[in-house]
Amino acid sequence: MTSQQQQQQPASPPRPSHRRVPFPICEDDSLAPFNPAQLPSDHFLAQRPVTPPRPDSVIDPVWVDGARPDTSSLAAADYDVSVHTGFLPPEEPVQSLRGAGCGWDALEDRLEEVEREAAVPGGAVGRLSERWMRSVRELPHASVEPLTTLPLLRRAHVVLAHLTHFYMHGTFPSQTVVPASLAVPLVEVSDRLGLPPILTYADTVLWVWRLTDQARGLRADNVEITTTFTQTPSERAFFLLSLFCELHGPAILRLMSATLDEVFFADRTALTRIARYLESIARLVDELTALMAGATRGGFGPDQRERIVPEVFYWEIRPWFNGGKWTYEGVGPNGEGKEMEWGGPSAGQSSLVHALDLFLGVDHMPRAHGHPHGHGKGARVAADKVEKAAFPGTFHDEHDKDTAAAVRAAAAADSSSSAAASAAAKASASLHKAPSDATFMQRMSHYMPGHHRAFLSHLESLHSPNPAAPHAAPVLPSLRKLARRHPHELGPAYDAAVGAMRRFRDAHMRLATVFIVQQARREPARGSVHWAEWEARRVAKERAEEERRRLGEGAAEREREKVVGTGGTDLVSFLKRCRDRTVEALLGDDSDAQAQAQA
Ligand code: HEM
């Protein structure tokens, strides 16, 4: 543009210098390249966490310097979120700790051995050799001393968490004691990462990939999953499905960041831009939905070549993921064992989905049935009851004590007996441990790397005044509030984004139905360790049917619910509830939107 043309342009209103979308949003974006110094200090992608994650666990000063997240990513580096890779690490993960010394070579060796041993037709749950199990117990204690960077710590968690799950489910019924050779370094490494000492979504998706061709960078057709339990294409595809979703993270986060910049100003230009960004977010979320729909139909990813076989997933892969109430040997203050209960990995631990919910104002807080906005104590108690029914092992209650006792008793008995089977079923229903007043989504955040959890809590705090420091930082109106205030400018775009999240959850429910609910009803292979458990359930169900005939329909219905339990009914109603919470966020013809706008 010539200087003469510039003079003829209508003068645009002066704008503060930090009104700048921090990253190029799309190809034709005309904004200047991002300079991190231009971000306002309270920008959600700029600020250091107010409280660093798990500060009490950072005991090694070397770690403080060496393991800080990579700050070259120009995005919320202190939160370990990258502008190029989102919640995935900015560099290809460390592939091996060989050469680190201090016991890590031996741990890598055990992992390589067991991956080979477990790669047998029909799966190896409950059938690992005593030779391998013993070799794990006899491992020298690995020291975390050489793990001075975040990528090294991540690899250590991947190795130890996989070895732990191989070990615990290498016998049937599963083990209940994590040997000190795994437990001690796992707890130490977990503390430093702000993770629980169990296999998480980070270990199975975020941190276990490598590039096929280094020159082509991170993209869906150039990435491979490196560590699996079964070495099957189905397991690789299962993790790739989530990884492909995460690849949308950078674009989504950039749009969220740009939106929040505009929310700060909320003038006419800002509202137009926000509407555009929300529509783009809706399109990106629809791409996640398309991935899920592809996986449900049979093929997804580049050339639709990835495929997860539902029965292989359910019977051969998924049992390796189970968490439980385990004794971690040698981790107590005086070297004694410590009992802890944790659930296994779930894409419910994906920070990306949580970030979208927070950003759009999808509220998962428990509330009383029929009271969509009820948040009182009574409402929470009622909703907790529903969650307890769906995930009985999630809560600390009498049931947990019974489960541990039942498992111990069953382990002592014949492993093919129905007692062992039903105890194992009970144990595998033990999913997630966390405070009983937290929602499922809150509990899932305990399974995210500490930096990501801090990122989400910072995102949340942008809209909520800090009662301890009411004047500390300006509080942004939530996007939902803003959309209600400006229904004409923002309503349709906001609803488009929330509607996309609803379609995402609809597609996810279909996926869970095909891969879990339907499979739970099918008979596993006769030779597999699951057959006895399945048979015990079948017999119990038959008994319930007899009861139905004896007691009449209503009572029998209740019996049937008890039997199906977490195998189907409860899971579906839980996922439906997450979907319903999303629908509640829609503004639609929200009658009180105008009233809010006046407020
Ligand atoms: C075959 C693939 C999948 C299956 C069988 C599956 C199954 C499940 C199940 C059983 C739950 C209930 C809670 C739990 O057990 O952890 C769940 C929750 C959840 N999953 Fe998946 N899932 C799959 C893929 C994905 C993917 C690719 C994503 C997205 C990254 C995802 C996101 C979520 C979220 C966010 C929740 C929490 C509930 C909600 O927000 O609706 N899942 N999933």
Automatic annotation (TrEMBL):
Residues 1-10 have a biased composition (Low complexity). InterPro entries: Indolamine_dOase, Trp/Indoleamine_2_3_dOase-like. Heme b binds at residue 508. GO terms for biological process: 'de novo' NAD+ biosynthetic process from L-tryptophan; L-tryptophan catabolic process to kynurenine. GO terms for molecular function: heme binding; indoleamine 2,3-dioxygenase activity; metal ion binding. One of its GO terms (cellular component) is cytoplasm. Residues 1-62 are annotated as: Disordered. Pfam families: IDO. Keywords: Dioxygenase, Heme, Iron, Metal-binding, Oxidoreductase. Belongs to the indoleamine 2,3-dioxygenase family. This is Indoleamine 2,3-dioxygenase.
